[in-house]
């Protein structure tokens, strides 16, 4: 028997939401907004040890070992502090409504253990927001296979690990929602962004395939394709970033799309319209335009 999806989400009170990449950027913004709306949150992000090692690997020293994050990172603790300061005390303190989950999304066992901890603490997980991701800009002739693999492991495999940790239980009970934070970069390749664009295209296709597989299961899938947002990922860029959005504005758009259970949501609409138009543009024309513009440097 097929299960018809429930009505749109309008009341977040006591909804259990797992957010990956929750210590900064979009993940942090979503954590603050959903906490304000009364959700119970599992905030997953690399622990202090893992963040230190990740920074070192980007700087040139690589390790195949994933460090065990013993404690939440200072950034994740700051998110909880801000939630405590901004949320209504009547809905409960951050300590009773927020669970910190220091884990690396590349580690499937750690992600699964984190999801189990969240269930034990708050009950069934209603929404997964697969947000964890990193960016990179590199000349085609300077691509490093190890660095590309690391980016894809975080942006794509990290999301796969997150889905695997929550989907079986969602499907068994016939309800839930999987949300992917992708990018408008998923639609077309961009200059010096081969790895990043490939990761976002893969992420979107993965979740689109899940959506088709889950028709009638009661589990909804939403793919978010945002444009440029003021986050640590975009700070310091010299590139032209048209229609650059404030984080709070983008977060509210994302929450709206989740509530409406949109299958796919691309914004802001002027930039999304332009990007979609390039998909039917002759390749020679797109190549000429893209080679003369830098959006991610």
Write the CATH homologous superfamily.
NAD(P)-binding Rossmann-like Domain
How many DSSP helices? 10
- Mean pLDDT comes to 87
Strand line-up across the major sheet: 3-2-1-4-5-6-7
Structural notes for this entry:
- With 297 residues, the protein is an alpha/beta fold.
- It has a single domain (16-291), classed as Rossmann fold.
- The chain has helices spanning 25-36, 48-58, 74-86, 94-97, 108-122, 145-173, 194-213, 247-259, 269-278, 283-291; strands at residues 16-20, 40-45, 98-102, 127-130, 176-181, 219-226, 264-267.
- A seven-stranded parallel sheet has the order 3-2-1-4-5-6-7, sandwiched between helices.
- Helix 5 runs parallel beside helix 6 and helix 6 runs parallel beside helix 7.
- The relative contact order is 0.14.
- Residues 50-67 have low confidence and may be disordered.
């Amino acid at each position: 028997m097929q299960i018809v999806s429930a009505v749109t989400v309008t009341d977040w009170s006591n909804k259990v939401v797992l957010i990956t990449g929750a210590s900064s950027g979009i993940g942090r913004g979503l954590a603050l907004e959903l906490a304000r709306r009364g959700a119970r949150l599992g905030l997953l992000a690399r622990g202090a040890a893992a963040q230190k090692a990740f920074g070192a690997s980007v700087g040139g020293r690589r390790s195949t070992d994933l460090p065990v994050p013993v404690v939440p990172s200072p950034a994740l603790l700051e998110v909880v502090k801000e939630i405590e300061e901004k949320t209504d005390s009547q809905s409960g303190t951050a300590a009773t409504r927020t669970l910190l989950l220091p884990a690396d999304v590349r580690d499937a066992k750690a992600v699964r253990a984190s999801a189990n901890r969240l269930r034990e603490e708050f009950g069934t997980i209603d929404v997964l927001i697969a947000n964890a991701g990193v960016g990179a800009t590199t000349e085609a002739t300077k691509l490093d296979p190890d660095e590309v693999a690391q980016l894809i492991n975080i942006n794509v495999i990290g999301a796969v690990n997150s889905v695997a940790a929550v989907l079986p239980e969602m499907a068994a009970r016939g309800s839930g929602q999987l949300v992917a934070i992708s990018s408008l970069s998923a639609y077309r390749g961009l200059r010096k962004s081969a790895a990043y664009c490939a990761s976002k295209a893969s992420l979107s296709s993965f979740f689109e395939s899940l959506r088709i597989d889950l028709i009638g299961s009661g589990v909804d899938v939403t793919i978010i394709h945002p444009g440029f947002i003021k986050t640590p990922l975009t700070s310091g860029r010299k590139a032209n970033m048209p229609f650059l959005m404030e984080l709070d504005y983008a977060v509210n758009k994302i929450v709206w799309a989740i509530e409406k259970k949109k299958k796919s949501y691309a914004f802001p609409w002027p930039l999304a319209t332009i990007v979609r138009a390039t998909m039917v543009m002759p390749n020679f024309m797109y190549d000429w335009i893209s080679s003369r513009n830098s959006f991610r440097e």
